[in-house]
Amino acid sequence: MAEYTVIADQSGLEDAARTLAASEGPVAVDVERASGFRYSQRAYLIQVFQRDAGLYLFDPPEISDFQPLQDALASAEWVLHAGSQDLPSLRELGLDPATMFDTELAARLLGHDRVGLGAVVDRTLGITLAKAHSAADWSTRPLPDAWLEYAALDVEHLLDVRDALAAELVEQGKTEIAAQEFQAVLDRPPKPPRQDPWRRLSGLHTVRGRRALAVARALWEAREQFAQEQDVAPGRLLPDRSIVAAVRADPRTKAQLAGTKDFIGRASRTQLDRWWAAIETGRAAEQLPAERVPSDALPPPRAWADRNPEADRRLKAARPVVEAHAEALSMPTENLLTPETLRRVAWTPPVADGQITPASVAAALEGLGARRWQIDETAQKIAAAFVEADQSPDETADAGS
User: Fold this and answer.
1) 301-400 has the same fold as 5-187
2) Contact in structure between 43 and 91 (CB atoms under 8 Å)
3) Topology (CATH) of 197-284
4) In what order do the strands lie in the sheet with 27-32?
5) Which of 119, 202, 317, 320 has the CB geometry, 3.0–4.6 Å to 389, for a possible disulfide?
6) Residue 360: its H or E element
């Protein structure tokens, strides 16, 4: 059983911060949220382990200021697993690493078949972790002892995993690659708010007509507002399928809405007035949403042969080359170069002085956010494949189909 200290007040955090500040070496950090239960992605438990300082479980709702912990860990390397998932919750509390080692990302770069925390701990240390509480509602208070033990184990072994993976990175010559990838995660800006986020409603494609879309939009907005007020995951109040069912049923009265078979969810009846008001708002809307919205998304590759045959040939020539090189490097293709990046370079060929060159491809990849190591590994190979595709279009198309 892991030995840990639960910190549930400001003075306890400050004491722990002083202990951590006096210690050296990397620090393992993990976050437990209540995804699927709460509207927010706030942290409901933060686990911190440093070899000389011990293991601490911090209870964020009970702590007013995390700045002392940030100051204590400012110069340490933070070890996280799938850090991109935890960083937003940590940064919301003012916790932000200057340097990071991501054990999940390292395992991907090393070509591990499974990269979940349990699988990586098992492969590197031969220790089996129970994942019984991974989907628990961590906003529950008080947290059961079994949950706290589970949370402590998530960081207790993480530093040993980090050391094992770091050694593997050295053996495979990927230390610098990993460093660039870790930094890219730290530097990645937050995603901008989606335009028309209501359009992500599951099943919306079955809704026809701009007026019906306005009703769907109004119902989504009403659910979003209520979910935010209650800090409850929207789908737990009113599932997407209920919104779509209400729109398609087109009820004439509140009673008909209540009687709609597929209009379900724990707030479907208790908040019936709210949903009916939203339907009426959508029906009265003067600005109706467009049925189709412009997008900068590329067409699906299966349509390229008709829409842009030259790009189709380039993609079919370059894709197997990139895939083969990723296999030679023992890493997933998407870590060497994302499929979207390759598609965009193929769709709009990077030309300099009328020619596709390694330098022009490198510049295009950089503009699309590729890291230096990715550019070094792929630019020349992609340029050669593109040139070959343009020189012998018939043969390349036949070979890639």
Assistant:
1) no
2) no
3) DNA polymerase; domain 1 (1.10.150)
4) 5-7, 54-58, 45-50, 27-32, 77-80, 99-102
5) 317
6) helix 358-367
The distance from CA 317 to its chain's CA centroid, rounded to whole angstroms, is 30
- Top CATH class of 5-187 equals alpha beta
* Statement: the pTM of the whole predicted model exceeds 0.85: yes
CATH superfamily of 301-400: HRDC domain (1.10.150.80)
| 190-218 per-position pLDDT tens digit | 888 888 999 999 999 999 999 999 999 99
- Domain map of the chain by residue range? 5-187, 197-284, 301-400
Task: Assign residue 58 a region (left: φ > 0; alpha: ψ between -120 and 50; beta: otherwise).
Answer: beta
d(CA 143, CA 56): 15
- Reduced to 3 states, what is the DSSP secondary structure of residue 86? helix
Residue 330 sits at the vertex; the CA angle it makes with 328 and 334, to the nearest 5 degrees, is 100
**Residue 133, CB half-sphere, CA atoms under 13 Å: how many?**
19
Which tokens belong to 254? Answer: 């509140």
